[in-house]
# Entry
Amino acid sequence: MSDYLSDEEQLVRIRGWWNEYGIKVALVVGLVIVAAGIWKVVSDGRVAAAQEGSAAYALYLDGTAESKPAQAQLIREEFAGSTFHIMVALDEAAAAVTAGDASSAEILLQEALTAARGSMLADLVQLRLAKVQYALGRGDEALAALQRVTAPGYLPLALELRGDMLFAEGSLEQAHATYQAAIDA
# Structure
């Protein structure tokens, strides 16, 4: 008997396989094509939103003192919760601190913190918020804000700032221990 099948036998086997598995294979191929199409649409949408946000933020940075508030509001509305929103709030908070308005800076930093939930920028905002709260004479709130810093890159800075606050309050032993923890981190 021959090890090779005739053309007719091969055709019968292929038809049998197609009758058993053909619909399933076609369905899987169709699902893969649809999933790839959806992925592309979502990915393109994200890229377009990031490009629009980047352009809006660039306009904000290049803007004049008169145009910046309107551009900042646009970013808050169009890109709420984005990195651009956080960066605008941080920039405005820094300007408020420079102008000597720590209360406004605190409000802006709270806004940035709300927008930064789950972001690496949340720890940076916590550090800046702690500095402003300490400047406003609310040391306990400032120390609590520093306790919420968890990212390894920001932890030494938070510990150093905590040590500075403890030192300024006269808690020298706690300050020393906190500085040592900052060095170790």
